[in-house]
Amino acid sequence: xxxxxxxxxxxxxGKSTAxxxxxxxxxxxxxxxxxxxxxxxxxxDRGIVSRxxxxxxxxxxxxxxxxxxxxxERERARVRQSTGLDVxxxxxxxxxxxxxxxxxxxxxxxxxxxxxVLAYGIRTDxxxxxxxxxxxxxxxxxxxxxxxxxxxxxxxxxxxxRKIDGEFVFDGDQVAIDGAEVTYESLCGACYLDESGGVxxxxxxxxxxxxxxxxxxxxPDADFA
Length: 225
Fold this sequence. Notes:
The protein is of the alpha/beta class and 225 residues long. It is built from 5 helices and 11 strands. The protein has helices at 15-28, 68-83, 100-112, 132-140, 189-196, and strands spanning 4-8, 32-38, 47-49, 55-57, 60-62, 87-92, 117-121, 143-146, 159-164, 167-169, 182-187. The strands form 3 sheets. A 6-stranded parallel beta sheet has the order 5-2-6-7-1-8, with helices on both faces. It has a 3-stranded antiparallel beta sheet with strand order 10-9-11.
């Protein structure tokens, strides 16, 4: 049985690069793949943009109102007609921006159509709140894999902090794609709390009294070694 995979990580953990490598691996063996991404990701227009400089256009873009299952079937028929081969894998970048029903469609594609689906994305926004698409993927994906990256302090980065004009901000809309003024920095829990003044979830949780309450050791994370 084909499976739905969710490969997640903080920003700069190489998700798009890993996705493009997976697509290349399939194609190197003569197999056909489909690449997709949500339309809300405006970086690179219809392209997948790796921070290493590797780019590739997607086969289709998913708008919030789109039926992913039907779109996949249409693109699958196109591939069959043009190549005589079936699609061996569907790869989705920035999957956190999908709706919950669109993630459900990814599961249906894997199980009913017997096509593996590899979804790549981040778990939480800059306020440590899960994106709807990521939350649903964590609930129903057959396989979860964390792609790891390093905080500025050397620990494993788990959160995505937003900067505007170089200054950390912890209020605002959930979605703001990298632009001339908006950037992001991947931080470990301790560095995130230090920059936010102990605030998580836009202040809806308890504010820590002192940094000493954060239970982080000085050594590297065991699961990052």
